[in-house]
Amino acid sequence: MPSNILKPHPKAIDRRQALQTLLGVATACSAWAAPMAWAQSARPGQSEGRLVVVFLRGAYDGLSALVPHGDANYYALRPSIALAKPDGTAQTTLRLDNTFGLHPALAPLMPLWRQGVLTALPATGSPDPTRSHFDAQHQWEIGTPGKSGNAAGWMNTLAGSLAGTSADVRAISAQSIEGAENKPQAVGVGEANPQILAGSAAVQLVAKGQAATRQGAVGDERTRDAVMRLYSGQDEISKAFRAGADSRRQTAKTLSNAMSESTTSGMGSNDMNKDISREMQLANNGAGNAQGLLLDAQHLNTLMRQDRRLRLGFLSAGGWDTHANQGNALGALANNLGNLANTLVQLRREFSQTNDVVVVASEFGRTSAENGTRGTDHGHGNTMWIMGNRVNGGRVHGGWTGLGIGNLHENRDLPIHNDFRSVFAQLLRSTQGLSNANIDKLFPGFAWDKSLDSMLRT
Amino acid sequence: MYPNQTTAAALPRRNALKVIAVCAMSPGLAGSLNAYAQASNPFEKTQSTQLFEQWRAMSRVGYGPTPQLVRALQTASSPKVWTVQQIDLAYAASQVAPLMASDLSSLNAPLPDIFDAAQRERQARAAIKAVTADSAGNTNTNELLNNRNNRRMDFSEPADPLYFNRSMVQKAAAWRLGACSQPNDENPLLARMTEFWFNHLNVYSGKGAVRPFIGHYVVNVARAHALGKFEDLLLASARHPAMLYYLDQFQSVADGSPAGQGRLRGLNENYARELMELHTLGVAGGYSQNDVHETARILTGWTVGPNEANGFRFAQRLHDTGRKVLMGQYYPDGSLNSGEREGEQAIRRLARHPKTAARISLRLAQFFVSDSPAPALVSALAQTFQNSQGDIRVVLRALLESNEFWHPENKLFKTPMDFACSALTTVSSTDKLADSTDRRRLILTENYLSEAGQPLHDWQTPDGYKFDAATWLVPEALTRRADFALAITRQVSDLDFLQPYLSATTRAAIAQEKPALRAGLALASPDFQYK
């Protein structure tokens, strides 16, 4: 119980290492212990790219988001939950081309599609066949299909590798935590400690919702001094606490300032606030599930705008596991997709510089056919979305062989035509300047997928 | 919050042992590891070892110390003896209804009444929707429904029919937080095991249909079977409306069953998969996608029974009567007609499977011993589980008597739930009136848990919460513990009984501060974050 006899458990080492690094403790077993300048800005003179991943936990139904309206099998497989063919009226699929269209709740994304900054890959995922949410998420987050043991999250590894490459070295404030070289390069908003950000590199983890804007006890000088005295030791928990107090105050100040600025300048905030207060209402009623995502995205925007050292962002939303009564144009899934669309529009406002990229993905897809309760069960391949100026958007990329039974994985699910790691490899090489050797450190054994070479503009 | 009653747990047998006076100048536990290692004769443990073991017993078998528990530990012949005694006390307590403040008791109402009230809420909401649909057909129910404050835990008035579900969720939270923080009213080990099983067989209060049944599920599934046979617990969860709704089992029927208007209904794999992946075998338990499908077929027709005392009904006409093969065995077997029995047999078989024994044993060891428990301990527990046909009491005895449970190096960092309940426990123990839990404190606690990422009964996915430090020891989140500690101790002058358990460094730091801050700082201290 006393903290001076604490030793991290071997199993917990990855996430605990994050703390140790954050606290300036050498981590001998980490390949990234010494930050290396292993990534160069992809295009000299351009802004450094920032990558935001929005992860939909629970396996969202990609066939309802990117609707294959041109495939007769789609309607045969889903008699009661298919989205109606596009006919220009409300509640029907929004036509993108002869094969695909958008769910009507994704209408806010149409302008981005037309501008050519948004693309979708309809049959991507992990080659591992697991249909367990939790295993699939774990493997996706550590970047290694089939691996179940403890490992660092790939965004954490990436954050560690980017450390020191930032051209912008900010002056260290008086309250700065120990060691500027350990300033986080990655920020996650909403989850306690997502696996994808767990590892030896320092990351910033911010609370979900309004809580992120409050400094709490450490905001009051007297109380802070008293609490800090309790945590003045050199043990792990004390260092973590001090780093947390620092980071939390900074986070809350940044977010509060941004909020008061937007309300005084009226910068599009009224609509936003209306959106967000509606989100909150939904949340209070336990209605929507991507509820809160919009506010978390707004916080992510603010934090990454204010601290240019933050190059990687992570957001997630649950509630996509639609086993029953998922609806079609209306219903629970439609509400969630609507929240997602508003979130992406919001992220686009911030992440619209040359090499910025926003990715939306899920751990796996759902069955091609509806089940016996007007929902869908756990599947395999799924649609991934990519948004950014470098994206060769306005069209679908990656493989697609339709929903004919002979073309389905195990006669039931979408196959995987493009490995999710290959998609990220393209993005990381183009917008972060990573070499294949370095990408292989994030995704051991990944293979370059030439069929995706046209996905990005050079 | 409860009538002031003394339960067996609060009356430890006096073992004619001398009460060990706790010296206020004790060095705290900082030196206890050395002391423990050097205690050559277990009957001559040093005082700091005593304190260390008392803390471990109170914080892991329950949710931390109260003056009364401290006295009980001091008068027991050893912390280990006290700990093992709790097993039978907890079992006995689980066999009778829990103490419950009268304004919370409806959470445990007969199931048909809960179904009725939930139905009335649906009708009331539908009526509002009909009135407020705008020209585009959109409804603004949310704005209407939010025009009132429902955040108070005041249940003195009967619930508005429109807010029945919400009141049931809040009552469940109020009872849970009371039960985990009032060791006089609820045996602390029983509260712990209720937490463990609820988490293992998680249901989610955010899913509409589940909401009114949350409290009933906690009391009649997790608590009632907390120290019984695992297969009985599993079957109770399988048949409870909260689980039937949560994982969609209530509507899974034989493929091609008629659904009116010429439409057909059929299978839903959700419950069948999680039953194997999470409740029993584990993801590497050797089942295939086909086994998931066959289990789903076996369980077709298991649905809610709004008029049944146990809330469960087996609908034979919606059951798939064909032959199924689950992990190499036929269902129904030769002696049976196809029906409810084959589902019960399949669930019992999964419950007794060696992979299940291993999975439950690992999770129990992680809950009570360490994030990475020794494989030898886990396999010994799994063997005990199998030898006793999944008798949880027998497994717990092996666990709490193990050297690993008492070993100082097997540390556990408190989860937000541990921290919230232990803070609430210490604070409540200072109340002059032991029969009323301050509801404002419960609201504070509930809000803290939400902010910390462990909202009560509100984890969306069936895997339940993680318990390890890797998940919860996060810089910013640590500072939120301090917020809660300071907020919940506003009217608490001192927590002197905690002093001996804090390190000298911590005690010195606290002593510097003004008295009003001291109780909060004790709870916010690094020492208090471990159990």
Automatic annotation (TrEMBL), chain A:
The lineage of its organism: Bacteria, Pseudomonadati, Pseudomonadota, Betaproteobacteria, Burkholderiales. It comes from the Bacteria. Residues 244-273 are annotated as: Disordered. InterPro entries: DUF1501, TAT_signal. Residues 252-271 have a biased composition (Polar residues). Keywords: Signal. Pfam families: DUF1501. Residues 1-33 form the signal peptide. This is DUF1501 domain-containing protein.
TrEMBL record, chain B:
It comes from Polaromonas vacuolata. This is DUF1800 domain-containing protein. Pfam families: DUF1800. Keywords: Signal. Residues 1-37 form the signal peptide.
